[in-house]
Amino acid sequence: MSMKLERFLLILYLGGLFFNLCWCSLVIPAAPLLGAALAMVLTKGGVAILTITFCQRRLRMIPGQPLAQFTAAALTGILLYLLASGLLPREAAEALALTPALSLTWHWWRTGR
């Protein structure tokens, strides 16, 4: 809002609200608990991704190389979770999924980034 973009922010949040209402009306009748949980997670995640993407393009908050490293670590973590979720207990799969992000954090801490 400090960038005089209140209308854009309103449009962003109205888009999130529209998505949420559509999702709720389509999915919750068939699967109430899962539909409601996914509605919250997907709406919050989508609005967060759009907000961060806009701020990154407008302000260049995170330099290119660390952003690419972080994205690769996140995608690797998701892949590890999906691969391990059927083979390991849930907690072990989650711990495995965190290892790329933790390794990257350790690398950045050691190199002084």
Notes on the structure:
This protein is mainly alpha-helical and 113 residues long. The protein folds into 2 domains: 1-61, no CATH class; 63-113. 82% of the residues lie in helices and 0% in strands. It contains 4 helices and no strands. Helix 3 (64-84) runs antiparallel to helix 4 (90-111). The longest helix has 28 residues, at 32-59. It is flat, with a radius of gyration of 18 Å. The mean pLDDT is 92.
Task: Give me a quick take on this structure.
By secondary structure, this protein is an all-alpha fold. It has four helices and no strands.
Q: What topology does this entry show?
A:
Elements lengths: L5 H22 L4 H28 L4 H21 L5 H22 L2
Radius of gyration: 18 Å
What is the H/E order?
HHHH
| Major sheet details | none
Q: How helical, in percent, are the residues?
A: over 70%
Number of domains: 2
Features:
113 residues, mainly alpha, 4 helices, flat
